[in-house]
Amino acid sequence: MAKRQNTETFFSIADRVGTFLFANFIWVVLSMTIIGIPVATIGIFAMMNRIIQGQQPEFFRVFLGAIRDHWRKVLIIAALDIAVGGLVFINYNIFLIMGLDNFIAILSMTMTICVTVILIMVNIYVWSYMSLLDLSARNLIKLSLIFGLSYPFTSLGITTMFLLPFVITIFLPIAFLIFITVSASAYIGARGAWYVLNKHFDEGDLDQLMYDSNVVL
Question: What is the mean pLDDT of residues 174-195?
Answer without folding.
Answer: 96
